[in-house]
Amino acid sequence: MKIVQTPVRFYPYIGGVENYVYNLSRELVKLGHDVTVVCANEPAGEKDEVIDGIKIKRLSYIGKVANTNITPRLPFELLREEFDLIHTHLSTPWSADWSAIAAMTRRKPLVLTHHNNIVGEGYANRVAQVYNYTALKLVLERANRIIITQPNYLASSSYLEKYEDKVEVIPVGVDAEKFRPMNTENENNTLFFLSVLDRFHVYKGLDHLLQALNTVKEEDPDVKLIVGGEGELLDRYRQMSSSLGLEENVEFVGFIPDDEITQYYNRCDLFILPSISAEQEGFGMVLLEAMACGKPVISTDIVGVAKDLIEKGAGIIVERRDAKGLAEAILHILQNKDRAGMMGAAGRRLVEEKYRWETVAKRVEMVYREMVYQDE
Q: Which of 88-97, 106-115, 150-159 holds the top average pLDDT?
């Protein structure tokens, strides 16, 4: 099949959707499909290139609205492309809207992965609300199949309720060869948090983690939190750490290059993702990466892997916005090394059994085949 993917941005841009599209596309190429990604040229690079067999067309953009690159050439590029199917992605508009129009114009199937709702703060939230009650309806109506990464998302997204009959639940995957246990020496009592540190990712819960760390420090003065990622809120989080007296307990390492990220997972004792918004947290891919590296994890009930994590004993789920409960969970794992080791091993087994990208890609391929060959 000839497949066109239309994320707003693409690798080497780092983000959940970007990682999803890159890994899925790479596996689809391995399965023998022709995959082209049409996206914004951010970060700026070669406008036409091939990475791991994926053809990439990067388009100039004139600015951003609500974290969405506006690429004027996108509709023309999509109409010029030959394809059997378009696979587009939300939670950012524009690319999804033009993909729906192109699929409708060319009478080709449209698959949408609805990663999470479109929300924002202040002006961005007003733009999001207007979009949700107008253009979003066109995309959802036009989509032949809507992929969500966890079943609970139907309940947390009022926009999807009426489209339940065409919703398919397929989880996010992880590269189990790249993310694996390594013979890296642990830094004792070390926690790891990874996210983009901007206003669109406040829902990842770093504020609550810092508050919890303040409590953990009272019992474990040597505890250390490594914070990976950069963004316009970095200084705010640094100031918060300072105001809590955590200067010696928190290290902001900034952007972590792709070839170093596995080492960071392996160096920590525990990975934490205390997400607070069910509307915005689509899955929590970083949890799978940490589990693949054999590390215990702590998160909240809104992440896609929460149910499996509890059933397999791979970590602890805490209440959202509960800094006290989060602190107790952190101390429990740090003070029970044998239990932590069992959790890490359980997480790795879970990844091997269910969350490899090869497995996920084959399930997505089945959706494609149903759409493309339904009349044969």
A: 106-115
CA neighbor of 115 nearest in space, from 183, 188, 172: 172
Q: For residue 374, give Cα distances in angstroms to 109, 296, 369, 371.
A: 10, 43, 7, 5
Q: Which residue has the tokens 């949408």?
A: 112
Segment 15-38, tens digit of pLDDT: 889 999 999 999 999 999 999 999
Q: Where in the chain is the domain with CATH 3.40.50.2000?
A: 2-173+356-372, 190-354
Q: How far apart are the first and last CA of the chain?
A: 15
DSSP state of 199: G
CA distance 58 to 31: 24
Backbone angles phi, psi at 299, to 5 degrees: -155, -165
pLDDT digits (tens, 9 = 90+) for 45-90: 888 999 999 999 999 999 987 778 999 999 999 999 999 999 999 8
Report the distance separating Cα 218 and Cα 313, nearest Å: 27
Please tell me the CATH superfamily of domain 190-354, with its number. Answer: Glycogen Phosphorylase B; (3.40.50.2000)
Question: Check: CATH 3.40.50.2000 for 2-173+356-372?
Answer: yes
- For the whole model, what pTM was predicted? 0.86
Residue 356's nearest CA partner among 298, 271, 289, 304 is: 289
Per-position DSSP letters for 305-355, written without gaps between them? THHHHHHHT-EEEE-TT-HHHHHHHHHHHHH-HHHHHHHHHHHHHHIIIII
Cα within 13 Å of Cα(311), Cβ side: 6
Tokens in use for 355? 């969350």
What the block records as the tokens of 57 is 């067309």
Q: What is the DSSP string of 176-191?
A: TTTS----PPP-TTEE
